Amino acid sequence: MSRRKILAFASPVALALGLTGCAAVGGGPIPGANTPITQNEAQQGREYHSQILQEFGGAMQGGTANYVRGVGQKIAVQSGLANSEGAFTVSLLNSSVNNAFATTGGYVYTTRQLVTLMNNEAELAAVLGHEVGHVAARHSQRRQQAQQQNTLLGAAGAILSGILLGDSQLGSTLGRAALQGSQLLTLSFSRSQEEEADRLGVQYLVSAGYDPLAMSTVLESLARQSSLDAQLQGRDNASLPEWASTHPDPAGRVRDTATLAAGKPGTVLNRDTFLRNIDGLTYGDDPEQGVIEGRQFIHPEMRFAFTAPQGFYLVNGTQQVTINGQSGQAELRIAQSSGSPSQLVSSAFQSLSQQGQQIRPQIQTTTVNGLPAAYGVARANSGQSQVDVVVFAYDLGGRNYYFQAIAPAGRSGVFTPMFESFRQISSTEAAQVVPRVIDVVTVQRGDTVSSLSRRMAYSTGQEARFRVLNSLDSREGLRAGQQVKLVVRGR
Predict the structure, then answer these.
(1) Of 346, 232, 269, 294, whose CA–CA distance to 71 is shortest?
(2) Active-site residue list
(3) What domains are there in the chain, each with its CATH number?
């Protein structure tokens, strides 16, 4: 959750983002993949660019961002969309989700979190090349022609809201409200379109001299990260809102891209160069956007904290924090207008009522941890069942915050401990919130996976996190002189 002003996107069609490519790597020609960027496409890309930067935490500056830009431009020019590397705008986004995408007109993006998961420059080129491949193949336009609309929705949240809310108007409204602006960009490309983008991405790697197997290895790391996150969050699936899981069948694509790479030229990995350029990069949440620590969310700049219910997990977005679980879903937002907590609760329910359901809650005032607060609970129809909708608002020194929550009828009490946990934090507590960063270290004689894992800045899953971060399988060890990544506390 950031204090930055967020601009809404003009339409779902405007957000149909994709990958580009030139000729196919086997499997026949790909329509449009050799067509240069048109003036109209360039104009569209410029229009989306500033909005995307705001939605995804802004563009980072400095050495790492410059390095990512150079690699992205080198791989993008292989597509034939333009003859000059300078025709492509490549941005490193200050976002803690694993994501990458590209827009029409030569605009390419990756989040810093996704970059930290990579282990060499070829993997960075592979991810960006895959995204450029969607653009070159005009997959967005082909989806629009097929009337396939896409919007900014978190994959995990969409699944949960679909299960919980069904297809009702209220469900779709709350689902959009809870997930709009969550820094999660879900791309519903078809399996054939993903295969085309993979083929193009591998071709770009070959053309640029990179090891084409990098497409397979980065996909494998993403799949393993999704599985680990599900395990750490206590979920029984790996359906995370991440680049690997929003693109269909990552496990199958690991195999398929390895087959594509077999026998093709290209050996460049540039592992040492890559690691040198990401050393010190922020890992996970940026304190300026608030930080998730287990089930607690703490925002040192806005000076508040709250704790999610047992069994729920948090996703930090630019406009809100979402709280997801099997028995409900909620979000915390900053009120955009002034007024009392009671007025805010009333306004929130009025907004929902305008979407087709008459919801008239009884609004009550209270105090939570010394803060003036108000809340309302109402029952509404959702498909063949009923749900409880709760809005809980707080006045934190003149700035209002509010939860919107939804749960099966009679079960909204699961969120009561969270509502009661919202509190203001002291300047001392705020000052103790520091970012995690990547620390590239050289393995010394006697170092082991176990000993280095203990230096990871986490209280749980240290070795599992270390292995996934460094693409080490469950039995793989280390050798003296090898460089590996740690996640440590910054300053």
Answers:
(1) 269
(2) 131
(3) 13-150+187-235+247-283 (no CATH), 287-431 (3.40.1000.10), 436-489 (3.10.350)
